[in-house]
Amino acid sequence: MSKREDVAAPAVQPHEVTFGIMTALPVELGALIEIVDDVRTYKDYDDPNDYRLGRIPSGLPGQFHSVVLLMPPRDGTQLAATCCAHMLRTFPNIQTVIMTGIAGGIPRPRQPGKHVRLGDIVVAHEGIVNYGNVRREDGSARLRGRQGAGLIAPRLLQAMNELRMAAFDGDRRWERWLDPARSAKFPRPRRETDVLYTRGLVTEHPPLPDSDTPEDMPRVHYGVIGSADTLMADEVFRDALADEFPDMFAVEMEGSGVAAGTSLIGKDWFMVRGVADYSERTGKQDTWHRYASYAAAAYVRVLLETAPPVNDTARPQKLSSRPLVGADDQKALDAILRDVPSDLDIEPVWQQTMRSDVAPDAEQSPAEPPNAPAEAFHRLAGRNAGASGLNPAIAFLARLGEVLRLFDADLAHRLDTWITGYTKNAGVGEALRERLRSGSDGGPAGPVAGPALVIEMEVCGIDREEIRVTSRIQDRAGPWHPRPLRVERVRRQQIEDEVSESIARAEQEWARLRTAGEADIEFVLPCGLMNLPVQWYRALRMGVPRPIGVRYPVAVRSQERMRESSVRREWATRWSHLDRDPFDGQVQWGTRYQSPPASLNWWSSGLSGDNRYVVVVLSESPDTELGLRELFAALEAGVPVILWDQRSPHQGAGATDEMRRLASAPPDLPARMRALRVDAAQHDADPHHSGRSVALLWDDPNRVVGAGGEGS
Length: 712
Known about the structure:
Domain vWA-MoxR associated protein C-terminal: 469-701
Radius of gyration: 31 Å
Strand content: 15-25%
Oligomer: single chain
Number of helices: 20
CATH topology of the largest domain: Rossmann fold
Organism: Paractinoplanes hotanensis
Protein name: Nucleoside phosphorylase domain-containing protein
CATH superfamily of the largest domain: Nucleoside phosphorylase domain
Distance between the termini: 72 Å
Largest sheet: 12 strands, mixed
CATH architecture of the largest domain: 3-Layer(aba) Sandwich
Pfam family, one: VMAP-M0
Number of strands: 29
Number of domains: 3
Domain vWA-MoxR associated protein middle region: 327-435
């Protein structure tokens, strides 16, 4: 009897399902439908996913596995994690999530025994490597290694070993499903369409190993599969992965999200993929998609046919509680979280939420931090709230919004709007706001930043003309931890060239890492160099020199204060006023602006005695004695924002009027300052434009570098 003739079989019930099988593309789902018995559609209206339920015979005669098939609307690790979380809530008795479909192969033509061909099958029995998840420490980058090895389904590993032993005797059971008479909808393409390219040139395949698989059947490779949220079409990077992981045979785009997403609730996973291309651009085409999808599905079929049934679902179990948010709200949230840059490091936000808003539970072991915001949300949604009483998933989103605000205000606003709507409907809006205002338990975990280049200068010894320039780079949005980029000693007249070279090196790194978001440039300067016109230094891009203050937000910072811990507390206290809405800080104008002009002692004492002073406007530039003394007094008091006219002596009312306008909205100063410099560059015929001479010290106490600070 064919599998289609068993029409009298009762429909599978949700509580009976023990295996979830996920795939990403319609052709992959079609291949699964061909190998699963008694397939029927299923819809739960509290769940946005669409499902198909069916059966596959088990390793015990007369008993079956009940399975659910799921295809997310798009590929990618984040959406896969989201859809998987929905599936596990709707089908609470699922024990294992199987991922199958196509993948890009990693060929090794110089190693015939490990060489992958199109149509081959890859089984991730040694785990997954998330090759998009890089940790940077002490100036070096490394992948965070394999994930989920301890959560690979034991019963399927045992079944896999049975299949491998049978294959040694020539019994490759999956091949019966690949017989051309049985798989007419998924034919194997002609051999000549399997073309391997090396650096754009056709490369011969090595001969098949002796006593191995017939040429018209796929070989099965057992090892590691790479996973990331990026479509791989990079031959050089592919080969670098092959060198680092000798047992990696393929790469794909969903596995790491699903594998990590199942771990927290005690589920396991398994992955089988069919090779459809060679992960490079020259030969990439769709010819092998259908066959590779079907080959992987055939292996999954015989794997489940070999595995014993799961026997702990004889009676319906209590279904899990309703999802934290409704289907429409979840779709809106998923759309926002998909736009979060894939290179954003969310681990510190996750760790702070776990410490502050998740109830301790001895039965739940610590989990590997998630790779994507959607994955983090769904993993936290199943956790009990800690002392705050707030659901930790919502607290996580609020902290994530604080991080996003640093480099993508529009995306942060979209997330804030979603949170506001949810918390209003749930009646917890005020509780969430109070939680995020509560000191160490609120806000993102630790200092965070977007990409940045920090250039520190100091005079070398007694030769006042020799300057040591130290550059550090913040690779991407995430915790503040800039790493060394370059250190050079130059003459004063060479500083601009060195700055241009440091910017070029930083842009190369950001391009290599595919870093997203606007990059800041910060100059850490001693008081003696504070008046350098660094914002007007020119850097080359495509051979065109342009002032860096036009291309980037540029600010200067105090080297002396950064190295002095005694002022750190007061500095941070004053800085906190900039985050308050409405702004409640004050602006102090220099002694010459007072009426009548004040003494420096009276002025500096008042400044130190009132921590509401957040901004100081100097009477003169730091190149003068008065300007330098006012600057030092403001730094010693912990004032984080300082403005001045760089010309000595002070030149007329134009710059003063502009500084009054700038100082009227201190939280917006960096953006206003850049706009002013762009306007000055556009009116280059006006040498007295105030944008040419107004300087900004914008000194964040959370972004310390050098001696005693991060990034040292």
